[in-house]
Specification:
Helices cover 36% and strands 19% of the residues. By secondary structure, the protein is an alpha/beta fold. The protein folds into 2 domains: 259 residues, Rossmann fold; 130 residues, Response regulator (Rossmann fold, 3-Layer(aba) Sandwich), CATH 3.40.50. A 7-stranded mixed β-sheet has the order 8-7-9-10-11-15-16, sandwiched between helices. A 5-stranded parallel β-sheet has the order 3-2-4-5-6, with helices on both faces. Strands 1-12 form a two-stranded parallel sheet.
């Protein structure tokens, strides 16, 4: 099996002077002076198969995500982190170089199609995206038809990859998030009465809810209430919260994004209701909601494969570099997923021995074949190896974080 690791930024890592979207400045960045980590160097004592041909050329990678609007924290985190990874790889000075381009889809499926066409007009060869699931469902059929190799950092819908052999996920699928959340709660909380509040017009939220419910039932967990909302009703949750409280729920599972979650936490506090809240990766970003009292998020749990407070060198160097470029911001899971996604693309290119002069179809088919034998240890794999099944779903170990004193920490 081909093995590669996304290794730590070395203590002598490069400091790139270019800035990127979300951090201020232009898309272009100056060439770093020093050398980034060699992500494809095999561990000592492990076997490594050399590619049949030498990989080479400048590959154009496109990112599609919400750079403006209510989900902009996700898209900008992805672009920022992808640029860090691209700069590191380019600083290696090897035959493989990357050119990063990106487009805003404002978390809208129709706009995402226009964004995709815009990037294809700029000769995109590989897609890192889309960032969210709804737009992905509009874009992946196009990428499949055009044979554009696709690694999505955070579009978690199971149907994003179903029937699309060119699409691979870095994040957990919705089914995985839902079942693993139920597993974590069952193993770490005794006898809790659970309420679920989910968004029934969002495939992401609905998918996680469905799989959470199935796993919870299989484990004989007690679900005492379920409430729903839609895009048009996500400003008032008093009915759902009152019903959950009346049912005796001491935990509320929230398979939703951070904006409505911040409203739920605020309104629960106003009514004196203080259950334990347990969310998923879409709630990563709740500490940055404008006007939100972050003290209300104290004790909130999130199922996530990345924690910025982890003590391993890879995480700490990434967090430091991200903060250096982005005005002290702490990277979220979406940033970590994107960083890993770029290195996954790089490792697949090196394993396949492909050249940037290939057609998209030739490139895509070769990279798909390489993914079958690829394993990567990255920011979001909790020290384990990421591998992919025949459908493009990732296998890696999940972890959970809890918010303490305004920061994500390992419980």
């Amino acid at each position: 099996m081909k093995k590669s690791k996304v290794l730590a930024l070395l203590l002598a890592m490069c400091m790139v002077v270019g800035l990127m979207a979300g951090c201020g400045g232009s898309e272009e960045s100056a060439a770093p002076e020093s050398t980034a980590p060699e992500s494809t160097t095999p561990d000592e004592g492990t076997e490594s198969e050399a590619p049949e041909a030498a990989a080479g050329g400048t590959f154009t990678i496109g990112v599609i995500g919400p750079l403006t609007g209510g989900a902009a924290i996700y898209g900008n985190a992805v672009v920022n982190a992808a640029q860090i990874a691209v700069d590191e790889i380019n600083a290696l000075g090897g035959d493989v170089q990357f050119n990063l381009i990106y487009a805003d889809d404002v978390h809208d499926p129709e706009t995402s199609v226009n964004a995709y066409n815009n990037l294809m007009d700029q000769d995109m060869q590989i897609l890192v995206g889309t960032v969210t699931s709804g737009p992905a469902l509009s874009v992946v059929p196009l990428a499949y038809e055009d044979r554009v190799f696709t690694v999505t950092p955070s579009a978690s819908g199971d149907d994003v990859i179903e029937g699309n052999d060119n699409v691979f996920q870095v994040c957990f699928t919705d089914s995985n998030q839902g079942s693993r959340s139920a597993q974590y709660i069952d193993e770490h909380f005794d006898g809790v009465k659970i309420a679920i509040i989910y968004k029934n017009d969002d495939p992401y939220s609905q998918g996680i809810r469905d799989n959470f419910f199935t796993e919870a039932e299989a484990r004989s967990m007690e679900i005492v209430y379920e409430g729903t909302f839609t895009e048009d009703s996500q400003t008032d949750f008093n009915v759902q919260l009152t019903a959950a409280q009346s049912a005796g729920a001491d935990m509320i599972f929230l398979p939703i994004y951070y904006t409505p979650a911040s409203v739920i936490l605020t309104q629960a506090s106003q009514m004196g209701y203080a259950p334990t809240f347990f969310g998923v990766d879409g709630m990563d970003g709740i500490l940055t909601v404008p006007g939100f009292d972050i003290s209300l998020a104290e004790g909130v749990y999130l199922l996530t494969p990345f924690s910025a407070d982890a003590e391993d060198e890879l995480t700490q160097n990434f967090v430091a570099e991200y903060g250096e470029r982005c005005n002290g911001e702490i990277p979220n899971q979406f940033a970590a997923d994107a960083y890993d996604a770029v290195y996954i693309v790089y490792d697949a290119i090196m394993a396949a021995g492909v050249n940037a002069d290939m057609s998209n179809e030739e490139l895509c088919d070769a990279l798909i074949a390489a993914m079958a034998d690829l394993s990567v240890v990255g920011l979001t794999s909790a020290g384990s190896e990421m591998t992919w099944d025949e459908n493009g779903a990732v296998s890696k170990d999940p972890t959970a974080v809890v918010i303490r004193d305004g920061a994500y920490v390992t419980p």
